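Throughout this chapter, every protein is written as a compact record of paired, labelled lines. An example of such a record is reproduced below:
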Amino acid sequence: MGLRHLARRGSAPATQTLAGLPGGIVTRRRGRGSEPEDVRLWSEGDDRRFIDRNATARTGQLHVRTHHDERDRAVVLLADFRPSMLFGTRRALRSVAAAEALALLGWRIAADGGRVGLAVAASGAPTVLRPAGGERAMIAVTGALAQAHADALGAESGSPARAEPPLEATLGLARSLLPAGGHLVIASALDDPGPGFDELLTLLAERIAIRLILVSDAFERARPPGFYPFALADGRRGTALPTAAGPAGESAEARLADYARRGIAGVRLDVETGPEAYAPLMERLDAVL
């Protein structure tokens, strides 16, 4: 709820309605739209294809019908709160950063008249909210995110180590919430998503628009050399020597490029930068939904 003011910053209602792509110039969407708006007298330069025959026959004067763009957006936000996401070395856990980004995006969509739903992947039962519009819907989404995250932390506290649940089951569930032409936004680090995840994601991308928020911790991008002590939930302890990390962001950017080739655009979310830096990224993402 506290991130709502960031979603409003720098985005006037006119910009949200007219902008079709990210950039510094606000332009109208191409085409005449699909929803009838008004019938008016013909004027020089009007397209003859839009002549309204009924009004013309009734009045004896040429009339044209104008249209406006129909933009009923239904977006499902998929948050990954599986055990691998409950990790972080700077500022916050990766799961927290994912929730912050999705909340920022959700507030933008709701303010623009869209409908927002939620699907949360966790070690327990998934959390699901069907897409709905307005401030009340986003309040329900933020509350469900907070509760699902608290449940995920509670489930892992003091419990023995368990296998990572596959992400593909929640992916299929999120798809079932969307109507034709809907949008799915996934916030995850995509650690061990399951053997059928990539295949299912590619198939779904042919039917719905999918966007990816790839969450990245600083430790993943640039690990200082050395030995690292660790303690597992089942009581085991030891010291590990992680493999050397490549250039900062190389792995994340390579994964994003791979998904982009399949028609799944995405952005990298650096956990340590915080919501102030996430806001312009979510603005860019919102513009192409």
Observations:
- The beta strands are 35-41, 63-68, 74-80, 115-121, 127-133, 183-188, 209-216, 228-231, 237-240, 265-270.
- Residues 121 and 179 are 20 Å apart (CA to CA).
